[in-house]
């Protein structure tokens, strides 16, 4: 990680670049796994990782964080 990164490992962020208008779909909420000056590596509650640009992400709202945690808990409960 770098000192210039605005978000740190474990932060909840929303990647606005993943928002779709057709069909309508909200942006993805992820948790920061790695933070660099030019990108973040984020992970969804089900373990999918993707890269996001720092100017595309914003801090997740309380509701978005709760939805992420609920989805992660459901996934954890579904595993043997």
Characterize the structure shown.
The chain is an alpha+beta fold. The chain is built from one helix and seven strands; from the N terminus they run E-E-E-E-E-E-E-H. The chain has one helix at residues 62-78; strands at residues 12-15, 20-21, 24-25, 28-35, 40-43, 49-52, 57-59. The chain has a five-stranded antiparallel sheet with strand order 6-5-4-1-7, with helices on one face. A two-stranded antiparallel ribbon has the order 2-3. The mean pLDDT is 91.
What is the strand and helix layout of this fold?
Blueprint: E1 12-15, E2 20-21, E3 24-25, E4 28-35, E5 40-43, E6 49-52, E7 57-59, H1 62-78
Compute the average pLDDT.
91
Structural class: alpha+beta
Rg from alpha-carbon coordinates: 13 Å
Binned, the helix content reads 10-25%
**Alpha-carbon distance between the two ends:** 33 Å
Q: What does the main sheet amount to?
A: 5 strands, antiparallel
Q: From N to C, what is the helix and strand string? A: EEEEEEEH
Q: What share of the residues does DSSP label as strand, in percent? A: 25-35%
Strand order of the largest sheet: 6-5-4-1-7
**Uncertain segments of ≥5 residues (pLDDT<50)?**
none
Keywords:
alpha+beta, 80 residues, 5-stranded antiparallel beta sheet
What is this entry, summarized?
This protein is an alpha+beta fold.
